[in-house]
């Protein structure tokens, strides 16, 4: 039974107040050190991109090509993870700089700013791990919950997960379209899909032209080396960012929730859901930066609008709150969390119930919503 079902209303309120106090303190402390951090990071990211694209231009020399791929991969990862993701959460809107604004920022990715903020900032962060509300549970492709009815196509769960990771930026770009509604469930018309796809295709086309036409053309006879280098850098970015995100949401111990928990959900309940529905992974400072500090996924879900470089300082306090109220603080090595994720992916490819996602559904529904045991058995 989940700890969620054993907490009293007073404990939920106390948790909410303690976490609100942390958030208010950090927001009040925003200033020069945060501005210096993001500006220096953007500067380093641009230097890496210039170096990477320059080295790929002389890619006929193998060491230069490898160095170019490494630099460009790092630049794309930094742009997407520690800069783009966090800027579009509004973590630096207080600076008043239109170039570092959640409204205006345009990242090196095929997903539009608008679509990302809708599917990620609003849907995912509001309804974190709530079945049928959070589209990030499986992205409409994978079976990541045993509460989801099994279909024969889910036998391909591991293969589909590899494809999703390989082309992650493109799947993220079309996520807001909810293609399964057109391709599988037939609840969306072709005309509706075409209208929704127009801005997405414009952004995808821009990125494809830049990486696979413009920069190779600038290299003249060395175009194939630049083309291949861009493919490799995009692949590295996709594989890394997808695994970082998977590790923060899909380890077996991470809980998922029925839609009924949203009824009359208090601030304290929301905070607890974020902690139970997220996981961290451990590493050094470089690991945290390259993951966009989503290695502190628990802290990010609690405080998505606080600059992510502050999560390392906040995490001991969050862990202490978890210990105080008997809540799990799910953390482990990158490899441990990755293995747990892929174990879940394989397990849920088969018919029947898995072992992670229903861990606390019954207890939560009984405690919070007062449903009968027979209804709980039916939901489970």
From TrEMBL:
Signal peptide: none annotated. This is Fatty acid desaturase domain-containing protein. It comes from the Bacteria. CDD domains: Delta6-FADS-like. GO terms for molecular function: oxidoreductase activity, acting on paired donors, with oxidation of a pair of donors resulting in the reduction of molecular oxygen to two molecules of water. Residues 63-331 form the Fatty acid desaturase domain. InterPro entries: FA_desaturase_dom, Fatty_acid_desaturase. It comes from Alcanivorax nanhaiticus. GO terms for biological process: lipid metabolic process. One of its GO terms (cellular component) is membrane.
């Amino acid at each position: 039974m989940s700890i969620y079902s054993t907490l009293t209303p007073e404990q939920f309120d106390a948790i909410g107040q303690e976490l609100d106090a942390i958030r208010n303190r950090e927001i009040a402390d925003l200033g020069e050190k945060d501005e210096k951090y993001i500006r220096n990071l953007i500067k380093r990211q641009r230097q890496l991109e210039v170096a990477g694209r320059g080295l790929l231009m002389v890619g006929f020399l193998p060491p230069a090509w490898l160095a170019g791929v490494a630099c460009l991969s790092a630049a794309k990862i930094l742009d997407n993870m520690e800069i783009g993701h966090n800027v579009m959460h509004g973590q630096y809107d207080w600076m008043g700089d239109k170039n570092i604004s959640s409204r205006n920022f345009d990242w090196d990715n095929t997903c539009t700013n608008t679509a990302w903020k809708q599917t990620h900032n609003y849907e995912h962060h509001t309804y974190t791990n709530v079945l049928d509300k959070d589209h990030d549970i499986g992205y409409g492709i994978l079976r990541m919950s045993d509460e989801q009815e099994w279909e024969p196509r889910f036998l391909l769960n591991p293969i589909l997960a590899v494809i999703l990771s390989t082309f992650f930026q493109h799947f993220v770009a079309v996520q807001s379209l909810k293609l399964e509604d057109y391709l599988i469930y037939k609840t969306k018309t072709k005309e509706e899909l075409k209208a929704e796809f127009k801005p997405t295709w414009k952004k995808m086309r821009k990125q494809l032209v830049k990486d696979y036409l413009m920069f190779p053309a600038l290299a003249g006879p060395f175009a194939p080396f630049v083309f291949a280098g861009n493919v490799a850098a995009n692949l590295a970015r996709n594989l890394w960012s997808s695994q970082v995100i998977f590790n923060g949401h899909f380890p077996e111990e991470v809980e998922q929730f029925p839609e009924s928990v949203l009824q009359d959900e208090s601030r304290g309940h929301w905070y607890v859901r974020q902690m139970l529905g997220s996981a961290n992974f451990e590493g050094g400072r470089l690991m945290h930066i390259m993951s966009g500090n989503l290695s502190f996924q628990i802290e990010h879900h609690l405080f998505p609008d606080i600059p992510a470089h502050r999560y390392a300082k906040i995490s001991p306090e969050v862990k202490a709150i978890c210990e105080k109220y008997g809540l799990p603080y799910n953390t482990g090595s990158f490899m441990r969390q990755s293995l747990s994720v892929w174990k879940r992916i394989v397990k849920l490819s088969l018919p029947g119930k898995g072992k992670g996602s229903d861990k606390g559904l019954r207890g939560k529904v009984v405690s919070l919503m007062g449903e009968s045991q027979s209804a709980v058995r039916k939901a489970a």
